[in-house]
Amino acid sequence: MAAALALVAGILAGAVLPPWSALPQYKKKITDRCFHHSECYSGCCLMDLESGGAFCAPRARITMICLPQTKGATNIICPCRGGLTCISKDLMCARRCHMI
C-alpha cells in the first residue's frame, strides 16, 4: 500500500520519467565508435581498417573524395557535407564534392 501511495505521489509531483520514446536520442560525436551511420551526428560511420571496427567521421568537404550516398552500415569514404554534390568531372578521376 505504501508503494502504491509513493507511485501516486510521484506521478502527481511529476517525478515519474517519461516513456523511452519521448527521451531524446543522442548521436555520437566524431571519433566515437559506431556500428551504423544512424548512430553518428555526422551521419557517417567510417570503417577503421587497422582496428577492424568503425568510428564516426565528418562528412567530406569541397574537393574531397566522396561517395554519392551511404550504403550499408559503414563505408570506407563518407558522403559530402550539406550543399555539396558528389560528382566526377572526369571519367578517369574519383568522385569529389563540388558546389553545383
Detailed description of the structure:
- Helices cover 12% and strands 12% of the residues.
- The chain has 1 helix and 4 strands.
- It has one helix spanning 2-13, and strands spanning 45-47, 54-56, 85-87, 96-98.
- The strands form 2 sheets. Strands 1-2 form a two-stranded antiparallel ribbon. Strands 3-4 form a two-stranded antiparallel sheet.
- The radius of gyration is 22 Å and the shape is elongated.
- Keywords: Disulfide bond, Secreted, Signal.
- GO terms for molecular function: enzyme activator activity.
- It is found in: Secreted.
Keywords:
100 residues; alpha+beta; 12% helix; 12% strand; elongated; signal; secreted
Radius of gyration: 22 Å
The SSE string, one letter per element, is HEEEE
The low-confidence runs, each spanning 5 or more residues with pLDDT under 50, are none
Mean pLDDT: 81
Helix content: 10-25%
Anisotropy-based shape: elongated
Strand coverage percent: 5-15%
Number of strands: 4
Measured between the Cα atoms of the first and last residue, the distance is 68 Å
Structural class: alpha+beta
Largest sheet, order of strands side by side? 1-2
Largest sheet, if any? 2 strands, antiparallel
Subcellular location: Secreted
Keywords: Disulfide bond, Secreted, Signal
Signal peptide: 1-22
Protein name: Colipase-like protein 2
